[in-house]
Fold Phosphoserine aminotransferase.
Amino acid sequence: MERVYNFSAGPAIMPVSVLKTIQKDLLSYQGSGMSVMELSHRSSLFQSIMNDAESLLRELMTIPSNYKVLFLQGGASLQFIMLPMNLGKTKVAYVNTGSWSEKAIEEAQKVDGLTVEVIASSKENNFIENPEIPLVSKEYDYVHITTNNTIEGTAFLNIPANGEVSLVADMSSNILSSSYEVSDFGLIYAGAQKNIGPAGMTVVIVREDLIGLKENLPAMLDYKIQADSGSMYNTPPTFAIYAAKLMFEWLKELGGVAEIEKINREKAAMLYAAIDSSTLFYSPVSKNSRSLTNIPFVTGNAELDKLFIKQAESQGMINLKGHRSVGGMRASLYNAFPKEGVNKLVALMKEFETKVEGKEQHVRH
């Protein structure tokens, strides 16, 4: 079966080579006679998978030795509450840059005795541009940012200065697609279903001095318990961790994060150039805040947007419909998305624009 170009914001496209390896291992992993999905999480086979996954991620992101790497469940959404429960002692700061930031803020506000302050927000301009982030004082336990906004199409590609306060980041949609210094952060968390693999696993990278700050937390929501048990306090998401290991191997073979960022910038530049040169399509996002991985664009006419999406689907380009809060189209160009798909989308945009302009001229005459 011919594969489509999947522009989904997540679960997202995975490399064919990785999918073929999964297919091969599905019935018998390394001659064990068991599917990779049937392996005991206490077995030496799975422990090797877990060790390799962590080692590869540490290498790809140059994670310092004083950081723990956790493979957890619950998605990034669970981290919205797990984070403030573990790190929030008195007062925390949040930067509001979109829908997922707002959800994180709402969850943090549920922690008893914790003051949650929004120190910067782009809500007033409909989240089309990153806000200026002020330096904060030591009275805050951490400052939280979302490095990439899948819905609004904005990103912090350069990390704002945060003084001596720990910076925490939700990197769900651009982890491993852009280069960041892990040491700039106290904690990073990311759902897997964008650049890491299938849904079901969440990566948490946390500096050791931020673990165990609070006692008597629910076991499943305690970073210390999870770290002390090697992410195996309960049965971990074994299949998702296995698939993540394969994705890490694929990325390493490709040349690592620096190389994939170069490719991602090329893909994004192609699409942004087509949008900016168009007389029909336009980007609602300010140029200085644009994401490399999630690119919304619109015509300003809902019926034309629907027609374009329909034509794209007929040519094997799916999941281009924009989020309901933004409308229009959204192309998610994660690590595994091929340049050929971007070329095909750009070609359709130009063809569609020509037809629309031709019809308008015909009506005028």
The chain is about 35% helix and 15% strand. The domain at 256-364 is CATH 3.90.1150.10 (Aspartate Aminotransferase, domain 1). Residues 339-364 form the longest helix (26 residues).
